[in-house]
Amino acid sequence: MEKVINCFKRRADAVSRLICFPWAGGGSIHYARWGNVLSSSIEVLAVKLPGRESRAKEPFFHHMQQIVDEVIGALLPLLKEKPFALFGHSFGAFTALAVADALKKVHNLEPVHIFLSGASAPYSETRIKAPKRSELSDEEFLKWLISVGGTPPELLSNHEVLKLFLPSLKADLHIVENYRCDKPDSPFLSCPVTCFDGKDDIPHDLQAWKDVTSGNFTIKMMDGSHFYLKDSGNEKVILDFITKHLETSEIDYF
């Protein structure tokens, strides 16, 4: 499990687990450190994908199913032990949904809550019509990356670092741009789903995510653009919200 998951603070007595999925090109550390901040009742497990961090020498995945199979293979025993929730931003929102879909259909397991951020539902018209960024030249891709914001300027100005960073980002975008997910005929989940987004990001079809669940559905808009969640104030709001809802779901679960 250590190859696939980064956990800064193991909590054997935690009542629930929060599984976090990285944004495109992202690593696990941003989320793993949440384990040092969140309540002791929550254990945070951050997904670590090939081609970055301690897995830098491994080839990138090319298909969403590879991520789903690896994450479920690593976590299935833990997910059967106690309640769990999923969090994913942007590319991570798609991977969180794909994992939740497989867990429900194959293993009849369901999260107690799914937190999705910065992305349209994959079957929405907004998403289907979105341009394919992974096919841009490096120069055009870099221009788009700057327009999105959230990438440290020192990284963008360092060509050697960019050579290492751009391939993982493009690989992840290739996966999500080729991920096919039909709009559910009926909700396949019953857990609450919460969507977060930045008010200044490009418009996302958040409402379409409601189709995946028969449970409560909430949208929370926050100040900022695509990487609004990197702002410390926004992060505190998100973590307080997650804590409140997981602690409530723990009561309901038991």
UniProtKB/TrEMBL annotation:
Q: Which residues form a coiled coil?
A: none
Taxonomic lineage of this organism?
Eukaryota, Metazoa, Chordata, Craniata, Vertebrata
Could you tell me the keywords of this UniProt record?
Fatty acid biosynthesis, Fatty acid metabolism, Hydrolase, Lipid biosynthesis, Lipid metabolism
Provide the reaction this enzyme catalyses.
Answer: (9Z)-octadecenoyl-[ACP] + H2O = (9Z)-octadecenoate + holo-[ACP] + H(+)
Q: Which residues form the signal peptide?
A: none
Its EC top class is: hydrolase
Gene Ontology molecular-function annotations = fatty acyl-[ACP] hydrolase activity
Thioesterase domain segment(s): 17-238
Q: What is this protein called?
A: S-acyl fatty acid synthase thioesterase, medium chain
Q: Which SUPFAM superfamilies match?
A: alpha/beta-Hydrolases
Q: What is its EC number?
A: 3.1.2.14
One GO process term, biological-process aspect? medium-chain fatty acid biosynthetic process
What protein family does this chain belong to? Belongs to the thioesterase family.
In the UniProt record, what gene is named as encoding this protein? olah
Gene3D superfamilies from the UniProt entry: alpha/beta hydrolase (3.40.50.1820)
Q: Which domain of life is it from?
A: Eukaryota
